Each structure stands twice: as structure tokens, then as C-alpha cells.
What does this fold into?
Amino acid sequence: MHRKRAPHLEKGDPLQLRRTSTLECFKLSVIAANLDHMTDETKFHALLRDQVRSEFTASQQYTAIAVWLDDQDLPQLAAHFYAQALEERNHAMSMVQYMLDNDLQATIPGIDAVKNDFSSVEDVVSLALTQEKQVTEQITTLARTARDEGDYLGEQFMQWFLKEQVEEVASMTTLLTIVRRAGDDLFHIEDFVARELAKGEPADATAPAVAGGRV
It folds into this structure.
């Protein structure tokens, strides 16, 4: 008994050509979609992606500060900066969530080098204040760029961070003033942090969502 052979498609067969043509069209459409995604990249998106790196770097710097303070037996100050480290990490992941929500390429970058050696508590807090001022400049540039590019969603997203930075700079400025007034009286600094900073801020219902959840 002979099995019935399947019809043989010769070279140039219309059915085979149609299949090949369909596959090639699909490949081209995928390439075109990827190119469209790349060309949609704006200056704001590039700056936001770079800001993720800055926020993670700030988080790591605050961790280094907290560890140094822990080693100096200053538990209140250490706890404050451990909390600051988590806050900066949440800022970074909020930006990641924004990129995910808006179909932007979200990547987790490496971070810049951080400082681990300090000469005094004043040295520590001075660095922290400088860092907050730098972040404020970066956030301001992001908001301005979003407005210039007509990216109203991006501009609105950055408004919360602008408000946050006003509070962060003010808080760190006050802490530096207290540290300078206290001089060598580290107990006075610890007491101030315990009374004024350890209680933390109430939950902010307007805070942007955080990828993976807030920590």
C-alpha cells in the first residue's frame, strides 16, 4: 500500500512565496516598532533615566553615612540616615514605575562612587546638604525640560519631587545649623534628632507609586 505523498512545493510556488512574504512583513513590523520606540526618546526621558542613577547613588551615599555614624555610636543620627537611604531608593523606583507605566525603556544602572571616610559629624551633614541641593537642581532641570518639550505628564510627575526637595533641603539645612551650634556636644545633636526627626513624616497620599512597593 503506497502512502499518498504531500504535494511538493516547487521553487517559486505562490503558497511558499506568500508564507515567506508574511514572515518578512512581520519581521519588518517588529523592527519598525522598535525604531519608533527609540525615536520616541526625548531629552526628558534621557534625563529621567539618568536621574534614576543619581537617586540610587544618593541612597548608597546615605547608607555609607549611616554606617559611619553607627560606627561612631550615634544611633539617632545613624537611624535618620538609614531612613534617608530608603527614601532615596523609593524615589528611584518611583521613576522606574513612571517609565514602566508610560511604556518607556526602564533599566537599572550602576551607581557613582560614594564617600565612606569622614572627619566629623559636620562633615557628614555638609555632604548630605550638598547632595540634596544637587538633586534639587537635577529635579528642577527635569521639570523645566518636560515643560519645554510639552510633556505635561512628565511635568506633573516632577511636581511632587520639587515639593519633596524643598522639604529635604530645609530639613538638612536645619540639621547642619544644629550640628554647628552643638560643636563637640554630640549628645545635643542626638537629642535633637530624636525629638525632631525620628518621628518621621506622615504618609503622603500624593506620593507617586513605587515599583515593587515602598520600603
User: Anything to note?
Assistant: Residues 42-197 form a domain with the Ferritin fold (CATH 1.20.1260.10). The helical segments are 14-39, 43-71, 75-101, 121-148, 152-182, 186-197.
